[in-house]
Amino acid sequence: MKHITIFGSSRCVKGDQEYIFAESLGNMLGKLGHNVATGGYQGTMEAVSKGASKHRVRVIGVTVPSLFSNMSKDSFEVKANEYINKEIKTESLSNRIHHLLENSKAIIVLPGKIGTLTELIVAWNTNYLYNISKDKEVIPIFLKKNYWIEIIDNMPEDMELSNNFLKYYENIEDLEKFIKKLD
């Protein structure tokens, strides 16, 4: 079953603009009938899950219990968020990213920290390899423009990171136009 993968920060909380945006994103994706997949914990992962869970779609959380279960109660990644309706437990962060990309028809990257940047780079590299081998479809990657453009534009050109796999969005309306073209 195909889904749209969303990467983003675990550090935002209810009421933050980032959380509100992510919840609106989940709501829009769910309303359009798209299953969603996130890392399954808190922050934007929870917000997207909350928005999508209002609709009859699969809300997947791909977690890493062996890595995060020993964290303190104050940590964001102690347990999966309450809005997911399917949890996939993985053994490592690399397995988590693999599961998130495996059946993805699109990737949306929200603002985040080093973990989100890592997920973006792995997704970008996966597309690069898919493009070379031609045996798999490239997965469109949508990036929040005002956050990611400066980071992406300042990557060294000799890294062979083709920007043709990336599209920038500025708001929910931009994303909705991209998402409606997927089907």
CATH topology title: Rossmann fold
User: What series of H and E elements makes up the topology?
Assistant: EHEHEHEHEHEHEH
Count up the helices.
7
CATH architecture classification: 3-Layer(aba) Sandwich
Structure description:
This protein has 183 residues and is of the alpha/beta class. The chain is built from 7 helices and 7 strands, in the order βαβαβαβαβαβαβα. The chain has helices at 17-31, 44-52, 65-68, 93-102, 114-133, 145-153, 172-180; strands at 3-7, 36-38, 59-63, 86-89, 104-109, 141-144, 166-169. The protein has a 7-stranded parallel β-sheet, with helices on both faces. Strand 6, helix 6 and strand 7 (166-169) form a beta-alpha-beta unit. The protein is globular, with a radius of gyration of 15 Å.
Topology:
Layout: E1 3-7, H1 17-31, E2 36-38, H2 44-52, E3 59-63, H3 65-68, E4 86-89, H4 93-102, E5 104-109, H5 114-133, E6 141-144, H6 145-153, E7 166-169, H7 172-180
Parallel strand pairs: 1-2, 1-5, 2-3, 3-4, 5-6, 6-7
Q: Summed up, what is this model?
A:
The chain is an alpha/beta fold and 183 residues long.
Attribute tags:
183 residues; alpha/beta; Rossmann fold; 7-stranded parallel beta sheet; 7 helices; 42% helix
